[in-house]
Design goal:
Structural class: alpha/beta
Number of helices: 10
Oligomer: single chain
Distance between the termini: 5 Å
Low-confidence stretches: none
CATH superfamily of the largest domain: NAD(P)-binding Rossmann-like Domain
CATH class of the largest domain: Alpha Beta
Helix content: 25-40%
Largest sheet: 8 strands, mixed
Radius of gyration: 19 Å
Mean pLDDT: 94
CATH topology of the largest domain: Rossmann fold
Length: 327
């Protein structure tokens, strides 16, 4: 058997913040809605003595020749060692034989990309068509990927950022100002929410950051930081005032997303709680009113990893990227 091994640099040539990659992730949510996906629960491993954890996500899509198994880690003492706090790798398996066909040593790039693209898919279906100001909470990798991918579906000329670290917020503002050629300001958290038409939260918070009395008609919020039990970026009453709540996967969001904190107030059958795949597949037709407040709760799904992995594999084969190892 031959195994194709690709580095992060090679994978960046196989998938990026472009229209095809956006469609790839949109397709992943549609596959979920079409019941084409076999996706096991996330395997989570705590490494508490080193402030770390590892998540394993995977999904097989009926009709596809291969599928991905992703191993992603977060070790939050790493910056003290001069290392990134998160990393990941993806293994592509043949759906016909079960043999490994490729190893992606992407250092978490594909995870960052597919997560940012999921936020863009949410905004495509939920945010107002015409916007001027976008807000982002956090100044890390996802604050960058979410906003770069958002530009694929919405034009905006002003970006507001808030972070616990003023230094990181200012570095982010300088970088994004140059990259996007728009006005970028570091402002207090409440101002981010009150003055933005779209707000993206990208933190690892365990206490609410966004409160309902800051919301205004027409606002869309994508909350992607809560991906583990105990995490929380939105106060529970934020969800209670939303006109529509969309999640990537019901069971995950009720156990580890923002909806874990409002289990009694929301149910799977609630009329205003749907999965993102219902929008991408047109199973649910949403006609947004200018005054609607919408929220998307993203926890990250294995089918996104398989979708972006399939795209990367096909492009790598076509361009003969990577190192072939006889195993």
């Amino acid at each position: 058997m031959q195994v194709r091994i690709l580095t992060e640099a090679e994978l960046r040539q196989c998938a990026g913040a472009d229209a095809q990659s956006l469609q790839t992730i949109e397709n992943a949510f549609t596959w979920l809605q079409q019941n084409r996906v076999m996706m096991p629960p996330i395997m989570h491993i705590e490494v508490s003595e080193h402030a770390g954890d590892v998540d394993i996500k995977s999904a097989y899509v009926k009709g596809c020749d291969r599928f991905a198994v992703k191993l992603a880690s977060g070790f939050f003492n790493n910056p003290k060692l001069g290392l990134p706090s998160s990393s990941a790798m993806v293994v592509m398996f043949s759906a016909k034989t079960g043999f490994c066909e490729a190893v992606f040593l992407d250092n978490g790039y594909l995870t960052d990309l597919r997560t940012g693209l999921a936020g863009a898919v949410a905004a495509k279906y939920l945010a107002r068509e015409t916007i001027g100001t976008v807000g982002v909470v956090g100044a890390g990798a996802q604050a960058r990927y979410q906003i770069e991918c958002l530009r694929l579906v919405r034009d905006f000329n002003r970006l507001l950022v808030h972070s616990r670290s003023m230094e990181r917020a200012q570095l982010y503002a300088d970088e994004m100002r140059d990259k996007l050629s728009i006005a970028v300001e570091v402002v207090p958290l409440e101002q981010v929410v009150r003055e933005s038409e779209i707000v993206v939260t990208t933190t690892a918070a365990h206490e609410p950051l966004i409160h309902s009395d800051w919301l205004h008609p027409g606002l869309h919020i994508t909350a992607m930081g809560s991906d583990l039990s105990g995490k929380q970026e939105l106060a529970p009453d934020v969800l209670s005032v939303a006109d529509l709540i969309v999640c990537d996967r019901f069971d995950q969001c009720f156990s580890m997303g923002e909806m874990q904190h409002v289990r009694e107030g929301l149910t799977r059958d609630a009329a205003h709680v749907i999965e993102l795949g219902e929008l991408t597949s047109a199973a649910f037709e949403y006609q947004r009113k200018d005054t609607d407040i919408t929220i998307c709760d993203l926890t990250g799904t294995g089918v996104q990893d398989t979708a972006i992995g399939l795209q990367a594999y096909e492009r790598a084969q076509a361009s003969n990227f990577g190192t072939i190892v006889d195993n």
